[in-house]
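About this split. The held-out portion is used to measure sequence recovery: a designer receives only the structure tokens and must propose an amino acid at every position. Recovery is the fraction of positions where the proposal matches the reference. Here is one held-out target exactly as it appears in the evaluation file.
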């Protein structure tokens, strides 16, 4: 831990810095030793974004999650300082390449990384009610899988309604029905009962550091008390594994997980994955429009359109649509919507 004085110095240094790292909910800055760490150390200053769109359920402040999990010695950064006024957190800086930079989507991450991800998912079984931070009154209890899934769905339906209200012609052009999650909404309340533990809910290539043959997992701010099969589904969805590595991860997890956390998991995993596919296609379309309006760098590049095209294509598969736009038609459709919105 570091004291408030050095931490405030690091915070002020972060505010003046230009080396901001990507993030939807925080501004992240790497601060060197001259700003309060040791002379040969760096730290990460995370400053919450006050008006960030809330696309995901939030349950606990990230420092509370990291502090609760510290006794489990999981591969994650340490909390060095927490400040409530001003709001910021100083975390241990993990030096090493981001997995997404060395193994981008479309490439295999390698067996060692797959097994490390499975290992984390299984080790989180130890994050039971005695370890996890307290949950708010009314939050689903362990075993109430249908209520937990319905909580996820309620937020998604709100975001989908907002997106469709703002861009009705766009989603009609994609061929999406007016109620794209209707089938999922009927299935989620009937999910099989499973025990809960603390789950990460955001394990993907940009949240994994791979320094010196190790694997470290970042960004615990979306952690929930909930169904481990949901954590598995989010991981498989966001990692975009090849079919071979997808199977390896799933098989490794299924072989090691305790039965009370995995009962009847196959059918419910498919439902969760369909939910994530539709949610991300719609949410990322809205985010793409926002980036274009803000003229953000790399918002109008072949890679950005290829990424969104893949998302829309997978959603079309879930919805059993006959035709999904290619990258050129998708760009044309979105840019036309953007022009209409600017009139």
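Reference sequence for scoring:
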């Amino acid at each position: 831990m570091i004291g408030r004085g050095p931490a405030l110095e690091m915070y002020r240094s972060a505010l003046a810095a230009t080396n901001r790292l990507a993030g939807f909910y925080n501004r992240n800055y790497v601060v060197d030793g001259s700003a309060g760490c040791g002379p040969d150390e760096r730290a990460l200053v995370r400053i919450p974004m006050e008006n960030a769109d809330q696309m995901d359920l939030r349950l606990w402040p990230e420092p509370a999650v990291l502090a609760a999990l510290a006794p489990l010695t999981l591969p994650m950064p340490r909390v060095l300082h927490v400040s409530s006024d001003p709001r910021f957190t100083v975390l241990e800086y993990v030096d090493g390449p981001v997995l997404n930079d060395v193994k981008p989507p479309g490439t295999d991450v390698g067996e060692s990384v797959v097994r490390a991800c499975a290992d984390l998912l299984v080790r989180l079984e130890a994050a039971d009610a005695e370890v996890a931070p307290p949950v708010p009154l009314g939050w689903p209890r362990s075993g109430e899988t249908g209520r937990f899934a319905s909580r996820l769905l309620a937020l998604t339906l709100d975001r989908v309604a907002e997106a469709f209200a703002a861009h009705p012609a766009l989603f009609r052009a994609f061929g999406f029905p007016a109620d794209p999650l209707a089938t999922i909404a009927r299935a989620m309340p009937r999910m099989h009962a499973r025990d809960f533990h603390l789950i990460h809910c955001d394990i993907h290539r940009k949240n994994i550091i791979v320094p010196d043959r190790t694997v470290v997992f970042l960004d615990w701010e979306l952690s929930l008390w909930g169904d481990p099969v949901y954590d598995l589904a989010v991981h498989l969805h966001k990692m975009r594994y090849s079919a071979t590595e997808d199977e390896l991860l799933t098989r490794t997890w299924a072989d090691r997980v305790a039965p009370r956390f995995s009962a009847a998991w196959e059918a419910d995993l498919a439902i969760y994955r369909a939910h994530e596919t539709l949610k991300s296609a719609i949410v990322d379309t809205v985010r793409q429009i926002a980036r274009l309006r803000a003229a953000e760098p790399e918002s109008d590049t072949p890679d950005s359109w290829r990424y969104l095209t893949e998302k829309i294509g997978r959603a079309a598969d879930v919805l059993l649509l006959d035709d999904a736009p290619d990258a050129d038609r998708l760009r044309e459709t979105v840019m036309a919507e953007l022009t209409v919105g600017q009139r």
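Annotator remark: DSSP finds twelve helices and nine strands in the chain.
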